[in-house]
Amino acid sequence: MTIVGWLQISLLFLFVAIAIKPLGVYMAQVFEGERNLATKLGGPFERGFYRLAGINPDKEQGWLSYTLAMLAFSLAGFVSLYAILRLQAYLPLNPQGFPAVPADLAFNTAVSFVTNTNWQNYAGEAVMSHFSQMAGLTVHNFLSAATGMALAMAVTRALARSKVSTLGNFWVDLTRATLYVLLPIAFTIALGFVAMGLPQTLDASATATTLEGAQQVISLGPVASQEAIKQLGTNGGGFFNANAAHPFENPTAWSNYLNIFSMLSLSAAIVYTFGRMVGNRRQGWALITAMAVLLIAGVAVTYWAEAAGNPILTSLGVDAAQGNMEGKEVRFGQAMTALYAAVTTGLSDGGVNGMHGSFTGLGGLVPMFLIQLGEVLPGGVGSGLYGMLVFALLSVFVAGLMVGRTPEFLGKKIEGREMKFAMLAVLILPLVILGFTAISVMLPFAVASIGTAGPHGLSEILYAYTSAAGNNGSAFGGLSGNTLWYNSTLGIAMLLGRFAYVIPVMAIAGSLAAKVKTPASAGTFPTDGPLFVGLLIGIILILGGLQFFPALALGPIVEHFAMLAGQTF
Fold first, then answer.
1. Domain ranges for the chain
2. Between 110 and 562, whose confidence is greater?
3. What is the rounded CA–CA span in Å between residue 491 and residue 485?
4. Which Pfam family, any one, appears in the UniProt record (predicted)?
5. End-to-end Cα separation, the chain, in angstroms
6. pTM (2 decimals)?
């Protein structure tokens, strides 16, 4: 580790911290319907959308109606994207002449982008036409992120309001998130990416002459526009197979900085939006602090592990001072690769600028564990917020048990109904991740897809289902996932990780909205101070540790100690 590396990391977090309040205030204005320059300019378009769709923006929905609208919209998105991929050969903007995407891969990809997972069992430049990339994948990068933001606003209103039966209007929240937040910011970021050298063209490829005199065909396409919303919406699906390690997706240290900043900015700012909308900005900062502590710890451990190097490579004569550079781009180094890895997995982004499977045992464990904590550091845009609020409810419930009082959160009594739904939500991840992993390691045709035998092979499978169920989308590498088994089961894991989680969360929101919001008393446990932050961090770590530690002990932890002993598998 170096001072320069830590300075790079610190400056990035400083830039994000500066952006949190202005972005958070702006989003609060948008979702509360306040007038500002953006809503004045976009107002006619917004009202036009409602008229075309036959939507009454003044009619609010209860939690069930809101949830059903979200599910119907997601189903329509899945069907439309699946159709685009299957009919790709007959659709325009296919200069490469790519055939239709196979049925099982199309299912996996459609589920992946609708659920904001963006797991990719394909090489984009060799499978997807420009039309599929733009009208299919990029569009759903916007819509899946906007869906997560809408759901977060519904949960926020449940805690902000008192004794009501409605949580807002899904179609209004979806439209405003897309029109006023994601589109203008993504457009600005895309312009920045173009200035930094990312391609934005409808040409299929360019031919270059190498230094040896050979001809090389280089894939091109509308990269900058997809890259912008990929990061801003915490999607992570790359235009190219190498994702953000590809020089056309991430050419320089400056573009790498903008990638990471784009990932973190909205996800962190929407937590401030929550604090503002519930009338307690300190509550928003408390949640941000808990997220930041765990995320920075993840960065530190990953950076330390990778900078310390691999004793096995050192024994082969590799200079230990260089650390572990396997699977990393030299233009980024260990510091910015470790930062990218922790951020993309603490979020639900899934983009990568290095090969996680080439990290050391401990360095590879951290990204996997950050996903297993629930994608709440700060998680996806919107989805991270409502995931963290589930942990907050569990924390105040534990605090209430310790002092013998009925737990409260922001003036709402937390009772048995809310706890049942909260536990149902948090048990989805271990059930899906550990269940599918256990089945896969017992099936010869599933084991045949791993790239490395031993503990690392287990990690490849465990990471795949962790990434899918956590709606992350990053991969450990080495696993040949484009098979009928993995395309199908990973798709099911993505669906359960998104919808089986959010339905009980919305049920909690409906229950809380109907309750009377009572003022804090002398006996109320404060949830905006350091004691609550510490308790919240402890609950997150305990749940993650107890659920996944046995599986991690058989994979990356074993690999870490074997590496220290100089053993290979």
1. 405-521+542-565
2. 110
3. 10
4. KdpA
5. 28
6. 0.94
